[in-house]
Design brief:
Radius of gyration: 23 Å
Number of helices: 8
Largest sheet: 7 strands, mixed
Shape: globular
Strand content: 25-35%
Structural class: alpha/beta
Length: 433
């Protein structure tokens, strides 16, 4: 049984974990271990063979595997240790403040590891059909969009020939195009909400360009077939999200793909005792992306579901850097998580659902800090106002904002230095008249 102490353990070898580990190395940390449950690094990007990645990070358009390989190369060049095919079972705080990680793999058996700091980068998972309460049998032919993506792109199987997609998340939109290119007929994409859950560019490139209809405020009300899907019935829903009688439409199909949202993989985070946001289902973090458990940082889709992987990497690089700083300060009286004063909560109003981070210590912001947030509905002709100590400090005009795309404001060091004592931070959305 392996018992070993590392300064930093990164849980997850996807884009977030790789970027965090590389950034921690660049910040001076050398004792780093990445734990990944899959057979190779790269995470979900390995099955995302479409392009559109890397425009912000590398200023060029890459496929998912190409984007992941850029960070895999960094990790390998730096000699950062990795354990693949390794499942983390639990994470706990030790009596001495260290983090105790219990994991298992075929080669080493049970692993009992200790670390001074952790970066949580477990990503997210798809919501299951069970969460939708669709009546009917459980025939073959019902897949999550991500499962269908893996079957087509990795395994080489086509799940079906006549397809209905429920939900308009980005994976579902991308699979509408992918299935069409493989010769399947995608009949319709039905979305419960009155707006799409995916990026505008994916609606255009994956639905509009292929003549696939998107029906907003619609849902599946019946699945037909016992052994295999034979058809589905969709219906329009009202403002209460309940089907409207008389609006039913029948589609003969053999496949139903579900693209109904993503959930951060936070069983380990919850077991550790970290505070969890009821909006994002991810941990509550401060300006250093540190959770309520000192020395435990989080980044990527385990923190909140992102729209672009470039933002995942950027966020993870901050988490890795701050984790390295925390480790370097562990022997000092003043640690990276205990500045001696309470952090300032980031307040919000006007249709904002959440912000990341949700609290800040201005003294720990290096150069600048991006505050990311999502709105709860489609908004047009608005302005986003950042107020410090009750006074507008930054205004950003937005022609259109939608729940499927993240928004951000940049809080600069120069802006913070204009206030001798910062007491409140607030982001609001107002009409742009």
């Amino acid at each position: 049984m392996e018992r070993k102490l590392y300064n930093l353990i990164v849980i997850g070898g996807g884009p977030a974990g790789l970027a965090a580990a590389a950034a921690a190395w660049d910040a001076g940390e050398r004792s780093i271990l990445i734990l990944e449950r899959d057979t190779r690094l790269g995470g979900i990007l390995n099955q995302c063979i479409h392009n559109g990645f890397g425009l912000h990070t590398f200023q060029e358009e890459l496929t998912g595997p190409e984007y992941a390989q850029r960070f895999i190369d960094q990790v390998e060049e730096k000699g950062i240790a990795c354990k693949l095919d390794t499942m983390v079972l639990s994470v706990a705080e030790g009596e001495d403040g260290s983090k105790e990680v219990t994991a298992v793999n075929e080669k080493d058996g049970l692993l009992l590891l200790r670390a001074k700091a952790l970066v949580l980068a477990m990503g997210c998972r798809e919501r299951s059909r069970g969460a939708l309460n669709i009546p009917g049998f459980r025939p073959a032919g019902i897949f999550s969009a991500g499962t269908a993506q893996r079957l087509v792109n990795i395994e080489g199987y086509l799940p079906g020939r006549r397809v209905v997609i429920l939900g308009s998340g980005d994976i579902g939109l991308i699979m509408a195009r992918r299935m069409t290119l493989e010769g399947a007929k995608v009949l319709v994409c039905a979305e419960l909400m009155p707006y799409s859950g995916g990026l505008k560019r994916n609606i255009v490139q994956c639905l509009d360009d292929f003549g696939i209809p998107l029906k907003l405020s619609h849902t599946v009300v019946r699945i037909e077939g016992k052994e295999r899907v034979e058809g589905v019935v969709i219906a329009q829903v009202g403002p209460d999200r309940k089907p409207i009688p008389g609006t039913e439409e029948h589609y003969d199909c053999d496949t139903l793909l579900l693209s109904v949202g993503l959930l951060p993989e936070n069983e380990l985070t919850i077991g550790l005792g970290a505070d969890i946001s009821r909006i994002t289902n991810g941990p509550v973090v401060n300006e250093s992306l540190e959770t309520s458990v000192p020395g435990v940082f989080a980044a990527g889709n385990v923190l909140h579901v992102h729209d672009l992987v470039d933002y995942v990497s950027e966020e993870a690089q901050l988490a890795g850097k701050k984790a390295a700083e925390y480790i370097a300060a562990c022997g000092d009286a003043m640690s990276a998580s205990a500045s001696g004063k309470e952090r300032i909560p980031v307040e919000f109003e006007g249709g904002i659902r959440y912000t990341v981070p949700s609290m800040i210590d201005p003294d720990r912001i290096d150069g600048w800090l991006k505050i990311r947030f999502r709105v709860g509905d489609v908004m047009t002709s608005r302005k986003v106002v950042l107020s410090l100590n009750g006074q507008p400090a930054l205004t950003k005009k937005r022609r259109v904002m939608a729940p499927g795309e993240m928004e951000e404001l940049v809080l600069t060091r120069k802006l913070l230095d204009a206030y001798s004592s910062l007491e409140s931070v607030k982001i609001s959305i107002e009409e742009d008249q």
